[in-house]
Amino acid sequence: MALPALGPAATALAGASSFMYLDALWRMGEDYKLARGIVKARIALALNNRRDRNSIYYVFDDAHRKRGDADCYVCDGVTYSWNQVALEVNRLAHWFLSQGIKRGETIALYMPNKPAYPIVWLACLAIDIVPAFINYNLTGQGLAHCINVAGPRLVLYDSDYASPIGEISSSLSEKNPGITFVRWCDRFNTGVGEKAQGGVDGEVRLDEAVLRQMSEKRIPDERRNGVTWQSPCCLIYTSGTTGLPKAALTLHGRCSTAFKVWTSLNEFDKKTRIYTPMPLYHSTAALLAVGVAWNAGATVVIGRKFSASSFWKDVRESRANVIQYVGEVLRYLLSVPPSIADKDHEVRLARTLANQLFPPLSSQLILLVAQVWEKFRERFGVQVISEFFASSEGNGSLFNHNGNKFGAGAVGKEGMIVGTFQRNKQVLLRVDPLTEEPARGKDGLCIRAAVNEPGELVIQIDNTSPYQAFAGYHNNPEATNKKIMRDVLSKGDTYFRTGDLLRRDADGHWYFADRLGDTFRWKSENVSTSDVAAALGEVVKEANVYGVLVPSQDGRAGCAAIPKSAGPVDFVMLSKHVSKTLPKYAQPLFIRLVDALESTGTGKQLKVTLRNEGVDPDVVRDPVFWLHPDKKAYVPFTKEDWGLLKAGKVRL
């Protein structure tokens, strides 16, 4: 007897049920891998502690003994074997010792992406000194600030970047008496351009000829005896989106944990070749590419800088099977015209790594982002996207190793095993929309956010744990204390404040909602700048959204800065689009055309200056358009319009 045919609704329901069942199985497997990685990390750290091998130098050292002449680093077609890297590390470590550097002292490293970067870091680890990873895009006051915060014994700067150092050298010497300026020269230097000119009087030149004179012997273990998991292995700076960057103390224990967990979750091994054009001064590339490769015995292909037009060419030529990117990179890759070579690479069955792959997400635009994920998978043939959420100074992280459509766009995903373990360790707190402080109940304790309710992520601090400790910021106790919240779920407990709003759905998917301070209140509603930016991204290539103060109005009105490089803006289409896709309170009332959008080295947009300038024609010289309340379309915003607003004659 034939079974009756299912109707369209029943068929769809059956398909959805099957899909969710398969996703549940997938999540169970990923949950197991994550739990396995955490257990492995705990066992390894306990064993290393007993053997006095807490330094992450040994992660590289152990892999070097196994990998020998295999590829360790590839850059601009030049390949370094593990043996070659170890030799260069030993030479440089002995040179550091010849300069009289003592254990625990700090050096500042100001260098672009190149193999020398991890080599310098390893040399520092070998003799237990702490490198401060300085953003090579910084100049002037910002550069001086970051170096001075580190209080370095010496500044090691790339020859191509000598000029910015020369300009601030006198002020650095004043605040750091006895500081040594060391100019690094190697085969990757161009020797041209304004930055390569100048330098510092009395600087020390360090090149291959000098290093060849140094000993090639491995630094004895005694030099690293006594290093604990609480000891810093480097200083990594916060992005500085709301002020001058802070130097986060990055600990050996936290790094060791990250190396083990990330390797296990993504199943990296000696066949893995990770391509990263992301800046090595940031934790994403330094820890989750370079450091993880030490743990896995993998190869790192170092891209000198990100280029959407040459990205896949570099991937193909280097035979990379893993790619790493942050921020808006995925959108940039999709914006390049399609090519018959789009799937001509080895990343098809490998993993991709991402940190906040898209602008922050809320429930309104998850579907849009999921569609972008699928466009990327379909066009480039990449099957798995391994998303994560973390911060340079934080004491926790979230992972979403995603190989299907369910949970696309989530920055974290946890099943029963990890979810049970993390219930009180990583918590979302309900936030007061006016004060941006976590709301508290009558008992004085914080209130957990409900399912799908955006809340601030806080992470329990346990300074007896190598992976839950919060070390804070180097030479900045005030900023450190601001990140600590007390009496959260019980009297006397302490949690690290991420400053990030996330939401968690009933299936254990975590979605990034926004940065605290990146939302604004308008018409008694909270507006997510990222939601608006994502909606505008369907019409314009890029937009930086923020709230601005308007005379005679409560709250902040939405404004979007659009770079002129994105091409001419079709304001008729844009006005129709925002009216169709966004609720009225979230529609940007102002559009500012700027020469370029400013962002940090990790792709986070800078908003503070734009927000402070607002749309006052006496302050803003860029062309500004506004969504005219009568015409319902974007038209030029004039001084007369500003005057009407000040006089309270216009109702927005």
Automatic annotation (TrEMBL):
One GO CC annotation: peroxisomal membrane
Pfam families xref list: AMP-binding, AMP-binding_C
Compartments in which it is found: Cell membrane; Lipid droplet; Peroxisome membrane
Classification via InterPro entries: AMP-bd_C (IPR025110), AMP-bd_C_sf (IPR045851), AMP-binding_CS (IPR020845), AMP-dep_synth/lig_dom (IPR000873), ANL_N_sf (IPR042099)
AMP-binding enzyme C-terminal domain location: 539-604
Domain AMP-dependent synthetase/ligase residue range list: 61-459
Membrane topology according to the record: Multi-pass membrane protein
GO molecular function: ATP binding; long-chain fatty acid transmembrane transporter activity; long-chain fatty acid-CoA ligase activity
Major localisation: membrane
Catalysed reaction, written as an equation: a very long-chain fatty acid + ATP + CoA = a very long-chain fatty acyl-CoA + AMP + diphosphate
GO biological process, one term: long-chain fatty acid import into cell
Keywords in alphabetical order: ATP-binding, Cell membrane, Ligase, Lipid droplet, Lipid transport, Membrane, Nucleotide-binding, Peroxisome, Transmembrane, Transmembrane helix, Transport
Function description: Acyl-CoA synthetase required for both the import of long chain fatty acids (LCFAs) (C14-C18) and the activation very long chain fatty acids (VLCFAs) (C20-C26) by esterification of the fatty acids into metabolically active CoA-thioesters for subsequent degradation or incorporation into phospholipids. The transport and fatty acyl-CoA synthetase activities are genetically separable and are thus independent activities. Esterifies VLCFAs in the peroxisome matrix. The VLCFAs are actively transported into peroxisomes by a PXA1-PXA2 heterodimeric transporter in the peroxisomal membrane.
Family recorded in the similarity comment: Belongs to the ATP-dependent AMP-binding enzyme family.
Name listed for the protein in its UniProt record: Very long-chain fatty acid transport protein
Species, as recorded: Rhodotorula toruloides
Lineage of producing organism: Eukaryota, Fungi, Dikarya, Basidiomycota, Pucciniomycotina
